[in-house]
Specification:
The chain is of the alpha+beta class. It folds into 2 domains: 78 residues, 2-Layer Sandwich (Phosphorylase Kinase, domain 1); 208 residues, Alpha-Beta Complex (Aminoglycoside 3'-phosphotransferase, Chain: A, domain 2). A 5-stranded antiparallel sheet has the order 1-2-3-5-4. The chain has a 3-stranded antiparallel sheet with strand order 6-8-9, with helices on one face. Strands 7-10 form a two-stranded antiparallel ribbon. Strand 8 and strand 9 form a beta hairpin. The longest helix has 29 residues. The mean pLDDT is 94.
Length: 313
């Protein structure tokens, strides 16, 4: 904790903090920082993780957008905005990690629970508001956030399948069983990406990671957290998380109150559903092969990977 204490003092002028570890997400470790009656949320992206560059390289592109949304739109109070360092930066870092600090939000993630009727309506309204903003509405350059339909993990996953005999035994045996459906999925992803690049679909700001662990309920409102995946993309990048929910018709009815001409593009929906599945599979493989997990952590990741792969057949 001494390293964190020193960092907080040096970059944020926060002295004598009490630091408590919280349940972190997929991308980062998390801590609650308390100083008297003030509380902050600290995200720590460890540099030893192979996935960290993916989650940190666009911070300086997406954080200003969040700040603008917070200050200029109806989304005020519904998304966390990082606190600037004393050098007016959204992050600071040392040789071990990249750090971001936010005001602490008192609330609970939805997680494994079900959304209530009021939460469904609230969420649909929040997304309908977010999806009103495109390149013309945001007064900054969004080029780095714009969907390109590129699939950087695809070549890495393909190389792993071609060199399957060189992989560790537990991974090799698992991938051998699912190699054919995986290769078929990779081929379909390439086809969809090529098609969508030429489709010129309307793009709007999208969160792109709207599972229930990224939805937080406070005493009076719903908040969308963990915006590392903020993109300018077809709205199917967000709606894919809800199309299979029993409440989707109700959700869409509320959403269409603001976007009354909206119709789902099935190709875009399929692209984002398949990309999410393949990205998850690759990240689990990446953890096993590059982060070199051992013991219980390795077996836990193997079990999750096996569960993901089992959905392919």
């Amino acid at each position: 904790m001494n390293r964190l204490t020193s960092m907080l003092k040096t970059y944020y002028n926060l002295e004598l903090p009490t630091i408590q570890e919280q349940k972190g997400g997929w991308a980062s470790l998390a801590y609650k920082v308390s100083i008297g009656t003030e509380a902050y949320f600290l995200k720590v992206y460890e540099k030893q993780r192979a996935s960290t560059p993916k989650y940190t390289e666009l911070i300086n592109d997406y954080a200003p957008v969040l700040k603008w949304l917070e200050e200029n739109t109806e989304l005020n109070g519904h998304l966390p905005v990082p606190i600037l360092t004393r050098n007016d930066s959204y992050t600071c870092e040392d040789d071990q990690a990249v750090y971001m600090v936010y005001n602490y939000i008192e609330g609970d993630t939805i997680g494994d629970t079900k959304l209530s009727q009021s939460q469904i309506i609230h969420l649909a309204k929040l997304l309908s508001k977010l999806h009103t903003f495109g390149e013309k509405e945001i007064p900054m350059n969004l080029y780095a956030l714009k969907e390109s339909y590129d699939l950087p993990f695809l070549s890495q996953l393909t190389k792993s399948l071609k060199a399957i005999e060189k992989l560790p035994t537990d991974i090799r045996e698992l991938l051998w069983f699912y190699q054919d459906p995986l290769e078929q999925l990779l081929s379909e992803m390439k086809r969809l990406a090529s098609s969508l690049k030429n489709a010129k679909l309307t793009m709007r700001l999208c969160h792109t990671d709207l599972h229930y662990w990224n939805l937080m309920q406070t005493s009076n409102q719903l908040i969308l957290i963990d915006w590392e995946g903020l993109k300018l993309a077809p709205v199917e990048a967000d709606l894919m998380f809800f199309v299979d929910k029993p409440y989707f018709k109700q959700f869409l009815d509320v959403y269409r109150q603001r976007h009354n001409q909206f119709k789902i593009n099935e190709s875009a929906l399929q692209f984002y559903q398949l990309r999410r599945k393949l990205e998850d599979i690759w990240e689990f493989l990446e953890q096993l092969m590059i982060d070199r997990l051992e013991g219980r952590a390795r077996q836990h990741t193997i079990n999750i990977l096996k569960k993901e792969l089992s959905t392919l057949i």
